[in-house]
Design brief:
Largest sheet: none
Order of helices and strands: HHHH
Number of strands: 0
Strand content: under 5%
Number of helices: 4
Oligomer: single chain
């Protein structure tokens, strides 16, 4: 697998798990179910919390992989941003 392809799949997975974490976070947000008039008994909140927690952990791992894949670029950009201008 090329580095570009790996980058692509890491970013796609990162987007997916971030979206899932966002949606499950809204669902488990206090008062949300009352707001949309859904009984808490009708929602498998334990499963939603489990999905939310695992996706949150996945985000952390994928961000770490993303940073590792872009480490050289970040170093080069930091150097170029803080390099003194030649007169």
């Amino acid at each position: 697998m090329t580095r570009s392809r790996l980058n692509y799949w890491v970013d796609v997975l990162l987007l997916m798990v971030t979206f899932i974490t966002f949606v499950t976070g809204i669902i488990k947000f206090p008062g949300f179910l009352r707001l949309i008039r859904v009984s808490p008994r009708d929602v498998p909140i334990d499963l939603i919390m489990l999905i939310h927690d695992w996706c949150g952990l996945s985000i952390g791992i994928l961000v770490l992989v993303h940073l590792i894949l872009h480490w050289k670029w970040m170093i080069n950009m930091t150097r170029s941003l803080f390099r003194r201008e030649e007169k």
